[in-house]
Amino acid sequence: MPVRTLTLAMLLAMPVAQAAATPQDLVAAVNAVRTHGCGSRPAVADALRPDARLDRVAAELAAGRELKDALQSAGYRASQVAVLEATGHPASIQRSLAEGGCKDVTDAVYRDLGVAQGNGDSWFVLAASLEAPAAGESAAVGEHVLALVNEARADRRRCGLKRFGAVPPLTASPALQVAASAHAEDMARRGVMDHAGGDGSTPAERATRAGYAWRNVGENVATGQSTPEQVVAEWLDSPRHCENIMSADFTEMGVAFASNAGGVYWAQVFGAPQP
Fold first, then answer.
1. Of 13, 26, 35, 186, whose CB neighbour count within 10 A is largest?
2. Can you tell me the distance from the alpha carbon of 64 to that of 66, in angstroms, rounded to the nearest whole number?
3. What residues does 228 pair with on adjacent strands?
4. Among 131, 145, 80, which Cα is nearest to 109's?
5. Pairing between strand 252-260 and 171-172?
6. Which residues of 15-47 are buried (b: 16+ CB within 10 A; e: fewer)?
7. Residues 272 and 215 sit within 8 Å (Cβ to Cβ)
8. Vertex 219: Cα angle to 214 and 220 (nearest 5)
9. Any bridge partners for residue 257, and if so which?
10. What is the pLDDT of residues 166-197, one digit of tens each?
């Protein structure tokens, strides 16, 4: 789950006392920036929606609690979160958000908003809710991930410091699909993203267990992404995961997801069979 945290501080000489911002003032300040645009960022037509769960998250952050714990306590499953903290009176908060928080406030991926005040600061939690794919869509999701991966493999690409030329497309492997499904479900059951299985198994051992006679095996895992587009994009942004996707050593692939109350877990298993 990508998280951005930014503290926005603005010091102004105030010749007269001003009333503290109300929650309504804070919501209005964020949406004024969002719906008008700021800097070089265009306006976003949809205002952020106040969410009582995120209000609780913001209040717990103001009290010093960790974001992950606050989200879990509030029952909000997020695929992406931005946390902004501003200091000032109502007259200065909007300007502070426009100058320091413009990128996040005008990011259309965020749909929900929570606000709170604590120790003289104003806290803003912008979030996109995590909506896991339906279990019945697993076949379609797998086909979509494979198509996105093959689209990436069709072009030259740089993965960190390594450059890769275009490589042949991967084909779907039923056995690797079994291995991917087992590991995704295992991660969701344990609430842990890891290449090691709950029984200590490695990706190669799980592929063998699924009946895959392999020459090469590799694996990507992820958590917190709600769509094929998001998970593939984040794998491609990570050099090691990108290298697996672009490797000519692999010819086949299986991919699966599983979810629990806290999030979605993805397993992508690559392989090349024995001759």
1. 26
2. 7
3. none
4. 80
5. parallel
6. eeeeeebeeebbbbbbbebbeeebeebeebeee
7. yes
8. 160
9. 266
10. 999 999 999 999 999 999 999 999 999 999 99
Structure tokens at 115: 């606000």
Degrees to nearest 5, angle at CA 235 with 229 and 238: 140
Can you give the pLDDT at residue 19?
Answer: 56
Instruction: Give the pair of three-digit tokens for residue 176.
Output: 């690797």
Q: Tokens in use for 1? A: 């789950």
Q: How confident is the model at residue 88 (pLDDT cuts 50, 70, 90)?
A: confident
Find, among 73, 84, 155, 82, the residue nearest to 116 by Cα.
84
Tell me the C-alpha distance between 229 and 207, whole Å.
25
pLDDT digits (tens, 9 = 90+) for 219-234: 999 998 889 999 999 9
- Pick from 213, 211, 231, 214: nearest CA to 222: 231
pLDDT of 3-50, one tens digit each? Answer: 555 444 333 333 344 456 799 999 999 999 999 999 899 999 999 999
